[in-house]
Amino acid sequence: MDDRARTEPEPLWREVTGRILRRRRHERGERLVETAERAGVSSQYLSELERGRKDASSEILEAVVGALEMTLAEFTREAAIELSRTAPVLASVSTIASPARFSPPAGAGRPLALACA
Amino acid sequence: MDDRARTEPEPLWREVTGRILRRRRHERGERLVETAERAGVSSQYLSELERGRKDASSEILEAVVGALEMTLAEFTREAAIELSRTAPVLASVSTIASPARFSPPAGAGRPLALACA
């Protein structure tokens, strides 16, 4: 059995990206303009990224992820967790929601555990 | 401690993407033209993606990942593993290299364990 046996369709990469960026910004209690300014992008553009309307270039993704004080590694781990919600086989990924040195954002780890239990 | 404490810089997202796509294609013993045809892209374009020269749109990524019989979830998990090689803090991600229903590609799991030991 593999991921192709999942019952729900997977979201597009930019949709997963947007959810993670927005969630992280909200966790930090920041307004679009604050994060956007640090990332060097317009708040309108960041808003489009967060809504999954635009595909970010690797450079923009690096800038926004960095502005949110995440590494690409953390961001990608978040994406794997996010995607595990639509791919049951990824229940195993719930293990990456709480490694010793990683503090999962509110709403990432626990809901995942429930979703994949 | 967090990922920002890592010693190596992180690669760009398209570089990580390219490595995973190429590795997966090689594991399947396919030529660029075969995978590209199924994905509906030119072999030249797929080659650029594999070399990390181009950022794939979410639709293209979905098409290529699908052509390689991976789900976006599997692809993203591979990316998290790939990135863990530059972020020591991600040693914990090595756990996703061998969940019960997931067969990590040759060179993904074990090297990771070594890299993050």
Give structural notes.
Two copies of one chain form a homodimer. The first copy, chain A, has 117 residues and is mainly alpha-helical. The first copy, chain A, has a single domain, classed as Orthogonal Bundle (434 Repressor (Amino-terminal Domain)). Chain A is 53% helix and 0% strand. Chain A has six helices and no strands. In chain A, α2 packs across α4. The radius of gyration of chain A is 14 Å and the shape is globular. Chain A starts with 12 loop residues before the first helix and ends with a helix. The C terminus of chain A is likely disordered.
Give a brief description.
With 117 residues, the first copy, chain A, is an all-alpha fold. Chain A has six helices and no strands.
Topology overview:
The structure is a homodimer of 117-residue chains.
Chain A: H1 13-27, H2 32-39, H3 43-50, H4 58-67, H5 72-84, H6 109-116
Helix pairs in contact in A: 1-3, 1-5, 2-3, 2-4
State the major sheet of chain A. Answer: none
Instruction: Report the span from N to C terminus of chain A.
Output: 17 Å
The level-1 CATH class of chain A: Mainly Alpha
Q: What global shape of chain A is seen?
A: globular
- Indicate the multimeric state: homodimer
CATH topology of chain A: 434 Repressor (Amino-terminal Domain)
Mean residue pLDDT of chain A: 79
Radius of gyration of chain A using CA atoms only: 14 Å
Count of helical stretches of chain A:
6
CATH superfamily of chain A: lambda repressor-like DNA-binding domains
Count of discrete domains of chain A: 1
